Amino acid sequence: MGAVLETGQYSDMTFLVRDASKPLLAEDSTADQNGSNCLRAHRVVLASRCDWFRRALTSGMKESIERTIHVYDTDKESFQEFLKFIYTGHLETESKSLENLVELMALSDQYE
Question: InterPro entries recorded for this chain (predicted)?
Fold first, then answer.
């Protein structure tokens, strides 16, 4: 299932990720448009494995209509790892720093 996330094949939604703790630079908006701050995912996988995403993607909220979710509270790498965990149910903890693990725990709490 992780390969499906990595390839982005048949993905039908986008996450635009920007760490709000870092200053917004002019090139950040260009990066969003060019896709460097974008992560692609599959609504059906997210909705089936996470209640928060199920509610957001099936309730007629802005996210379900636009198929885009803006994420301002983490960096792209951490959110990508969070999505990988949702897809696979597995997390490689040995290669993660304590800071990375705390960030992933905060994301899992936020999107529970």
Answer: BTB/POZ_dom (IPR000210), SKP1/BTB/POZ_sf (IPR011333)
Tokens of 45: 């996988």
Sign of CA dihedral 35, 75, 2, 95: positive
pLDDT greater than 70 at residue 80 = yes
Q: Is the pLDDT of residue 30 over 90?
A: no
Tell me how far CA of residue 45 lies from CA of 24, 32, 57, 91, 99, in angstroms: 31, 24, 11, 17, 27
What range defines the domain where residue 68 resides? Answer: 2-23+33-111
Within a domain: residue 28? no
Give this prediction's pTM: 0.81
Query: Which CATH number do you get for residue 82?
Result: 3.30.710.10
Tell me what the mean pLDDT of segment 64-78 comes to.
91
Q: Which residue has the tokens 């928060």?
A: 52
> What whole-number distance in Å separates Cα of residue 61 and Cα of residue 76?
23
Give the C-alpha separation, 3 to 37, whole Å: 20
